[in-house]
Amino acid sequence: MEIKDRSQEIIATGENRRAELQSKVMHDLAVHKDIVQVHGFYYSEKENLLSVDVVPDISVHDEAAFVAKLISEIQPLVPDMQVVIVVDHNYSE
Fold this sequence. Notes:
Order of helices and strands: EEHEEHE
Distance between the termini: 39 Å
Strand order of the largest sheet: 3-4-5
Largest sheet: 3 strands, mixed
Number of helices: 2
Helix content: 25-40%
C-alpha cells in the first residue's frame, strides 16, 4: 500500500484501493469523540460513490453541520467521487 501526502490530502494508490480507503475512512471517523460507531462502508468506482454509516452520540444536535464536517474530512480521499454520510441513531440509550 502506498499513500501519498499532498499537503494534507491523502490518496490511496495501491492495488486494493477499496480496502485501503475503508481502513483509512473507518479509522479517521472512529477517532471522533462524538461518533459511537462507524459501519456500513460502501465504495463503488462504477457509481462514483463512497458511503459510510455513523452513529453519533447524544451530544450531536446539528446533524447537517455534523455530516458536512465529516464529508469535508473524507472528500480529499476521493476528490472526484460523491461522499455520503448516513446518520444512524442509537435508540437504546
